[in-house]
Amino acid sequence: MEPTCPYHIDRTGADVHAEAARIRANGPVSQVVLPGDVLAWSIVGYDEALQALADSRFSKDPRKHWTAFANGEIGQDFPLIGWALMDNMTTAYGPDHSRLRRLTAKAFTMRRVEAMRSKVEAVAQTLLDELAQVPAGEVIDLKARFAHPFPSRVICDLFGVPAHQRAAMLRGGELNVDTTLTPEEVAENIEQWHTMMHGFVADKRRSPGDDLTTDLLAAQEEDGGRLSDSELVGTLFLLLATGTEPVMNLIVNAAHVLLSQPEQLARARSGAVSWAQVIEETLRVEAPVAHLPFRFPVEDVKVGDTVIPKGDPVLIGFAGIGRDPVKHGPTAARFDPERADKSHLSFGHGLYRCIGAPLAMLEMELALPALFERFPDLELAVASDAVEPQGTFIMNGRKELPVRLTGRR
């Protein structure tokens, strides 16, 4: 593939895998141009990403470590400004990051997550029961009817979000990863999101419940004010968004690839390969997050053979990392659950590794086999290559997944 350096990112996300390959043509670490003509770096090599993700010299705090942003060179019209304005553990560095992470990580330990198994399973079964009422052969959007409501109900139950507020509160996170929005739409979303989240927190202060939001509020009081209202709201936004969007994409991507390759689905359903193998290979070959902003080196850092200057924005190209031919050979782009090495970094690595990974894995472990057990003859309602991409270069998902519920148990 002919290199084009620096590569201009396609804000529509028309083909995130082809884009990752084009970026890789310039090397595992190379310059890209973001919407708004902002220069950045993209890391799509597995070894290079592993190095960068483990390096404490990479900050995620734009206020302190993104030189152009701190100098006022990045205006409010930057299409990805929402990623710079967030105030939570993923935009904090050093002691601030450790403090914020401690407050939330204990909610997602393996023990706490395992205790949620019966509740998560009940959500999945309720949604499958609803799908079972659909007339046989009718075409539905599996993303809208199962893949999205499943993780969103789980995470909203966990944080005590009332049913009537859920769609609106989650909408802010969905729009934040939409890289086709205009600067005006981005600004409007940020304003509405802040207003809604602050209102939700105020309601919880007046009427506490048995949920994680109430626990965070209690921690704020006990912490002597070290957790600001802005950090609290930012943390809620982060956990609601990351608790929904990536899991939704994982379910959609796994279902899509299995329905596109009936022989692999048959092997999974027969037990020839385990569902755990299917999930891990989906995470590798169809990472739910494609190209995540931002990191900023606090000094010049050499990653692989490339020096990334201090203060430059860096994106981690998870969709490209999982398909790196240097790591996974010439068949890197092929879905193969029996592949010996299914190494991926789709949950991140190091200090900023996703704290919700245990919950995401539990959800996948329960949802995917249950879906195909209930609907053993589930089939795509359109050609596999006619399934449209999500429409963003940050996430790797599908706009919808039309299927027919032709058989059921």
Automatic annotation (TrEMBL):
SUPFAM superfamilies per the UniProt record, alphabetical: Cytochrome P450
Record protein name field: Cytochrome P450
Alphabetical keyword list: Heme, Iron, Metal-binding, Monooxygenase, Oxidoreductase
GO biological process, one term: antibiotic biosynthetic process
Family: Belongs to the cytochrome P450 family.
PANTHER family, A to Z: CYTOCHROME P450 YJIB-RELATED, P450, PUTATIVE (EUROFUNG)-RELATED
GO terms, molecular function: heme binding; iron ion binding; monooxygenase activity; oxidoreductase activity, acting on paired donors, with incorporation or reduction of molecular oxygen
Annotated InterPro entries: Cyt_P450, Cyt_P450_B, Cyt_P450_sf
Superkingdom of origin: Bacteria
